[in-house]
Structures are given as C-alpha cells and as structure tokens.
Design goal:
Length: about 675
C-alpha cells in the first residue's frame, strides 16, 4: 500500500507517454487508475481494424481516427477528473524539443520502432528526464529504466543489425520465401501500382531486344488500345517468363544454384487464355460485386491454406484486374498496407509464383501478411503485464527510489517458477557514442561516395539523426531545417551531390566530420577512413560504420541465424526492406542477465533452452563468438562481464559466470 507521500508524488507528477497502441492503451488506463492526474500522450498513428483485438480503448467506429485522441476520450469517460493532453503528431516534430521534455517528471515509451526510441532517448538525456522503455513481442516483454548519469541509456546496449537483402539477391538469386515476398512487395507491387517515377530495381525484359531502349519508361504502362487481359498476360509473362529466361542466360549468378523455371500464363491457365475464350468472354472473371478481394471472386476462403500454382496465377490476374477496373484512381500513388486485402492477395500470389519458379516453398496468405506487414502477433495479456511494470517503476522514480528500480523481463514459460525476471540496472557504458560521445569511424571511398550517401545512409539511417548539421573543420557543409533561408537550402542541397574528396576542403582519409542535431541536443564525431573496394553482398552501402555502435557483429548475427534455422522458420514479423540498413521494429525484447557476482548457475535454470531460442530472435540479442567448441556470450547490457556456454559429454549444459557487476553510482 502506497504511503501518503507516495500518493502525493503520483498526483503531482506530470507524465509524458509516447505511443498509444498496444502497450499505450493498457498503460494509460493503468496510470489513471493508479492516481496519476496529469498525462500527455503523443502518437502519430490512426486506428486500424487489426488493432481492435488488443487495443481495448478503440472500437470499430474509431477506425481511421487518431489513436492519441480516441484514447484520451475513452479514458476521460470513466476518469473525468484527470488532465489528459493528446497530440496526434510525430514525436520527432520540432515542437517536441528539449524544452518540451523538461516539463515532465518521467517519460514512458510504448513505441514500435527503433528510430523513434533512439530519438526519445536523446531528448530525455538532453532534458535530464528519466525514461522508462518497454516492448513486447508475443508472450515476451521487457521494461527498462534509464536515468542520465546513473544508468545506461537506451543506446548503450547493442542492437542486432537489421537483416538486409542485397538487391542482387532479391532480383536474381532468391533462396528463401522472404526474398520472394520482398521482391513482390517492394519491387513488383510498387512498380505496378505505386509511384513509377521512383527508382526501382525491377526490370521487365522484352522479347524483342530492339525495344530495350524504350522499355524502362513504359513497359509497365497499359498501352493505348490494349485490353485488360492482354496487359495482365504481358506483365505475367514478362515478369515470370521472359525475365527468368534472361536470368538463365546469366550463367555466373546461377552457376552453383538450382536453375529457375520460366512460367507462362497460357501454360498454367490454358483455357482462360485461349483466343476463343478471350474473344467470347472479354475477361476470364466477372468482377462485379467483389471490388476488394480476388479471393472472394475465385471462391478461395481459407487464408491459412497454401494455394496451388494454378490458384496463385488466378489470384495474380484477378487482383491486377480489380486494381485496373475498381481502383484505377489509386494506381500511381498506391502504397502497400497489410490491411489492404487486395494488396496482400496480389503480393501473396506474386511471391508464390516467383517462389515456385525458383524451387522455394510457397506460403499462405496468412503467413505472407505477417511477413510483408512486419507483424508479430501481439498478446493483450503481455501488454497488460508490461504496462503494470512500467507504472511500478515510475512510482519508484517519483519517490527517489532508484536503488529499488529493476529492469524486468517477461518470459513465455516459467523459469525457476517465475515468469518475470528482475535485473538491476547497469551503469552507463563508457564506450556509448550517445551518452559518452565515443568517436565513430566511417570507411568509405572518398573519391566516389557523395555527401548524400553519408547523410541518408549513415547519419539519418544508422545514427538516427533527425535534422543533421555537418561540419568539416570550421566549414559548415550541410544543414537542414524549416528555418533555413532559401539560398542556403539550395547551397546545401547542391553539396549533397558532391563527392567527398571534391569539396574545397576535401574530405579524405583522416578527416573528421562533426555531426550535430540541435533538436536532440546530440553530437558525435565521424572519423573518415578511405577505402577503395567493398564486398557488394556484405557491404551493400559501400560504406562501413564502426566504433561503439548499437549494432551486432557478424558472429552474433551468425548465432541468431543458427537459432532461427533450429526453429525451422524465420523470426515472426521480420521482413526488411530491400537495400536498407534500418527498419521499423515491431517490438523490443532484450536478453536477460541475472547471475550474481562470483556465482555459477546452470543456464537452463535461468532461461530454458526453448526460451533462449525464442529470446534470441528478439530485437536485442546477446553477443556471441565461437572458439574451439566453447561459445563466449558477452552480455549486451553489462560492461566487462562474460558468460560461458560449455559442451559436456552428456549434452549441452550451460553455465553462467559473471566476472564483475557494476553497481549504480550512489
């Protein structure tokens, strides 16, 4: 039972809650029922149908409305005496600056992506406001406490490098279902129905080599006088037939791989595409009354059933026709949405047709929706547990009881009869480039790389800098912001297309770039190292960023991949964009460390092997390096600690040894 002083601290506290989704709905309810009176909520998203099974503050009538505002209205109905301020906005907007954050006693994160988490972490560090971070994925969850100068910041802990797929793998040598799904979603769907002016690595080869010069601009367009059926067949045969034949002629890329098989629509659907049938029917399916679903037209009812080759071809053609006939105004601006049934049907069919051609297992619509939409199927109970833990830690911080704060991890199965594993917070990592300003190193070909590459791929994408200012010595070479004068904006924009070594003060080997973000009050230094060549498969950006980064080394990634293989599937909800280094994460679960100083325990007594495998698939994973049958696991959240996994003759017994544990400075 809370004391009078504790209750008073709760009532007077001003709380910022970032995110009003799965965790946010539970958290807002728990906060007001605990006695918090002044709560501000920021969320950019609007309510979708798929939210309704777990985000209980929302109803069917709220679909399309602001999550923050609807959550505010719903809670005020049963707690009208509470002050709730809702912002339907992006937390990265300029209005939410350091001064805005300084007005709060504590910030509570319920976000669903890594970039926004990093942004809030930096604002909290700059404002000196405690941050409570959280995340869930299925039955797993976590709550972590971050206090400037006393505990590690959110970015002190390594994060695994997001899985990326080189463009050449996606376009030429797919080997997994996810490769085909990325191809169907990011390349084919975007080219047919999205912005065709955007760069796209999908090439449709023509039968006639004399038309190669004009194919890139109009081959995906419906030609004058061309009927819908002919257009659909031309796209189908071009993508799944002619392109495969061209790939077969490229012996280099397929020399050691199983050769794909070209697919032509007339071979799969001979009756529908016979000349007589087309003349008599015009279109091989009647689309009236079924404007949103090809499955409904074709009588396919089970989304968890894997379609046959013939059914995939039928869905592909029907989906294209529905887009052309019923959603013609959207073509050119359409963006894939996991809640768009027709879009998911098209991507499923296209991915499966490509998978069949390359000898890769086909997937059901349910599985494709999960991977293409980055879905981890959420559990409402996990969100409720995590929300309760967030409030408990907030109460401790408000009563100046940091020593009693814990990072808590929720497990799927009991370990030592516990589902919740508490861990003491750790000291700041002295090598963290965010809170300790450790220098970073960028290997790049300074003669070829442009400043645009550094800004987009490294500064914004890898370092999550929102509004970068870049200095080279005393020279300001790039700045962005709404308050820039027009002539300066033009000048900095022109700098983006300059090679690093071509600046008046050349950026070459040994140069140091100072990176700053005024909104985040964040700064770091980037030491440039010139390098001539890069491995296109492993280093698709032709740049390598190193130093104390929140990223996972290849050895750790290899272990993670091993665990994925052991489970016989890709991790839930993991689908990364083509040729991208950073993606939105659905949730955030970190490996647990609970061993006491100078003690040894069997690892399975802490976390069962099955749980270890599941946790290893989460966003934040322990580090590992293999050496002569002994795997050393370095805990991400500790400095100077090691764990040892040793194989025994009777099987794999795991022991944990904690060399040292740093306590929080008093």
């Amino acid at each position: 039972m809370a004391s009078a002083d504790e209750l008073l601290a709760i009532e007077k506290a001003k709380v910022l809650m970032v995110g009003a989704g799965g965790i946010g709905c539970e958290l807002l309810k728990t906060l007001v029922l605990t006695g918090f009176k002044d709560i501000h909520v920021i969320d950019l998203d609007t309510i979708e149908v798929s939210n309704l099974n777990r985000q209980f503050l929302f109803r069917q009538r709220h679909v399309g409305q602001s999550k923050a505002k609807v959550a505010q209205e719903a809670v005020l109905k049963f707690k009208p005496d509470v002050n709730i301020v809702a912002y339907h906005a992006n937390v990265k907007n300029a209005e939410f600056n350091v001064d805005f954050f300084k007005q709060f006693h504590v910030v509570l994160n319920g976000l669903d992506n890594l970039d926004a988490r990093r942004h809030v972490n930096r604002l909290c560090l700059a404002a000196g406001v405690p941050l409570i971070e959280s995340g869930t994925t299925g039955y797993l969850g976590q709550v972590t406490v971050h206090v400037k100068g006393r505990t590690e910041c959110y970015e002190c802990q390594p994060k695994p490098a997001p899985k990326t797929y080189p463009v050449c793998t996606i376009t030429s040598t797919p080997s997994k279902p996810v490769h085909c799904i990325v191809w169907a979603k990011e390349l084919l769907f975007a080219k047919l129905f999205g912005d065709r002016s955007q760069m796209n690595d999908l090439i449709l080869h023509s039968r006639d080599p004399t038309t190669l010069s004009e194919k890139d601009s109009n081959v995906f367009e419906l030609q004058n006088g061309e009927c819908c059926n002919s257009y659909v067949q031309r796209i189908f045969d071009g993508v799944f037939g002619h392109n495969i034949e061209v790939a077969l002629k490229n012996e280099g890329s397929l020399k050691t791989r199983k050769k794909p098989s070209p697919l032509y629509l007339s071979d799969i659907l001979p009756k529908e595409y016979s000349e007589d049938y087309r003349k008599s029917n015009g279109n091989f399916n009647h689309t009236s009354g079924h404007a949103i679903s090809a499955m409904a037209v074709l009588g396919l009812k089970n989304p968890q059933e894997t379609w046959s080759l013939r059914d995939n071809a039928r869905v592909f053609c029907e989906a294209m026709q529905l887009f052309l006939k019923n959603r013609k105004k959207e073509i050119g601006v359409c963006i894939f949405d996991k809640d768009d049934q027709l879009a998911v049907e098209f991507v499923t069919a296209a991915a499966n047709l490509r998978a069949f051609s390359f000898g890769i297992p086909m997937q059901s619509l349910f599985e494709v929706r999960g991977m293409a939409g980055n879905i981890v199927h959420a559990i409402a109970t996990t969100n409720a547990i995590i929300s309760g833990l967030i409030v408990l830690e907030a109460m401790k911080l408000l009563n100046n009881s940091l020593d009693s704060c814990r990072m808590t991890y929720c497990l799927e199965y009991p370990s030592r009869k516990m589902l919740l594993m508490p861990v003491e917070p750790f000291e700041p990592n002295p090598k963290c480039y965010v809170c300790s300003q450790t220098p970073l190193y960028l290997e790049v070909n300074t003669l070829k790389a442009k400043l645009r590459d550094v800004v987009e791929k490294i500064v914004k994408n890898k370092l999550s800098v929102n509004s970068p200012i870049i200095m080279h010595g005393s020279n300001l070479i790039f700045e962005m912001g709404e308050d820039l004068e027009e002539d300066m904006a033009v000048h900095y924009s022109a700098n983006l297309d300059k090679a690093l070594a071509s600046f008046p003060m050349p950026i070459v080997d040994g140069s140091v770039l100072a990176i700053e973000d005024l909104q985040q009050e964040f700064s770091c230094s980037l030491h440039v190292k010139h390098r001539e060549t890069f491995d296109e498969e492993r280093e698709p950006y032709n740049m390598v960023l190193s130093g104390e980064l929140p990223t996972m080394a290849p050895e750790e990634q290899a272990l993670q991949n091993t665990l994925h293989t052991k489970n016989g599937r890709e991790p839930s909800g993991v689908l990364q964009p083509v040729d991208a280094e950073e993606v939105s994460y659905t949730n955030d679960v970190i490996m647990v460390g609970v061993a006491k100083t100078g003690t040894k325990r069997k690892f399975e007594n802490i976390i069962p092997e099955a749980e270890l495998s599941r946790l290893a698939q989460s966003e934040d994973v322990f580090e590992a390096a293999s050496s002569d049958g002994v795997t050393l696991i370095e805990e991400a959240s500790m400095v100077g600690t090691k764990r040892k996994l040793e194989s025994t003759a009777t099987g794999n017994s795991c022991f944990v040894e904690k060399k040292s544990k740093q306590k929080i400075s008093q």
